[in-house]
Amino acid sequence: MIIQMLHEKGVRSEHAYMAAFVSIGLSIAAWATSLNAEPGAGVARADRWGIFVGEWAPTFFGLGLALSHYEQQDGTLTASVHDIQGEGEAV
After folding, report:
1. How far apart are CA 38 and CA 16, in angstroms?
2. pTM of this prediction?
3. 34 in a domain, yes or no?
4. Residue span of the structural domain in which 56 resides
5. Residue 71 covered by a domain
């Protein structure tokens, strides 16, 4: 139900995968920023910020998998691995 709604709104599996990779980068940036901006708070606070943002990545990867599965059933998946591999072969 939610996956279908996201798909109808234009969200594709590639978007969710990209969000997951961006959240990994943001996790590192949040950790480094917290470590430098709040030196009195220590590493523990920076770790909490990094972990908080880092927890988003598995959710986005899960949404990407669910959307990919929905796209395969719906027929809107743009290309499969077999299609891509077959492009370079002579027929």
Report:
1. 31
2. 0.71
3. yes
4. 10-75
5. yes
The answer to the question of residue 3 being in a domain is: no
Residue 85 lies in a domain: no
With tokens 């901006």, the residue in question is 37
CA–CA separation, 78 vs 22, rounded Å? 22
Per-residue pLDDT of 62-90, as tens digits, reads: 999 999 999 988 766 665 555 655 665 55
Report residue 69: phi and psi, to 5°: -60, -45
In eight-state DSSP terms, residue 38 is -
Counting the structural domains of the chain, the total is 1
Which residues have CB under 8 Å from 17's CB, separation 6+?
60, 61, 64
Please give the Cα distance from 9 to 65 (Å, whole number).
17
**Token pair for 24:** 């990994």
Contact 16, 58 (CB under 8 A): no
What's the CA gap between 58 and 56, in Å, rounded? 6
Q: Residue 28: helix, strand or coil by DSSP?
A: helix
